[in-house]
Amino acid sequence: MRVDTDSSPDEVKAAFAAWLADFADAMAAADAAATTNLLDGDCWWRDLLALSWDLGTYHGTDRIAGLLDEHLQQAKVSDVRIVTEFGPRFVAEEGAAARSRASSPSRRPAPGAGAWPASGRARTAGAPGRS
Question: Where are the domains of the chain?
């Protein structure tokens, strides 16, 4: 299924679901050729410790095919899916502890480290001209 700028949101979702199913099947089968056939020739692949235990960036299907040929079989990829439940979220906290944290200054010394100097500058013990 091909989509373009005139495609409806449902058509786009259906096309992506079909592509993702094909991609998942190719990855699970450790088929580097089938996987790269699903990618644009000018695409980028960022391997964030998934296949190679490296933070590699690969440009173009030839370089990506090399990565897949070398690591896909051993990786045993499964359960490929899109995850949308991520990112920052607001979580309301209840009670006095939450109000206390909200009103506390963001920069304060660690427990047991003493107080900040009144001038706002750190004091260096033993340095000439400082106490």
Answer: 7-104
Sequence-separated contacts (24+) of 90-99 with Cβ below 8 Å = none
- Element (DSSP H or E) covering residue 57: strand 55-59
- Are 113 and 105 spatial neighbours (Cβ–Cβ below 8 Å)? no
| Nearest CA-CA partner of 50 in 74, 29, 32 | 74
Q: Print pLDDT tens along the chain (131 aa).
A: 789 999 999 999 999 999 999 999 999 999 999 999 999 999 999 998 889 888 899 999 999 999 999 999 999 999 998 887 777 767 777 765 555 555 545 444 455 544 444 444 444 444 444 44
Determine the Cα–Cα distance for residues 65 and 30; give it in Å rounded to an integer: 11
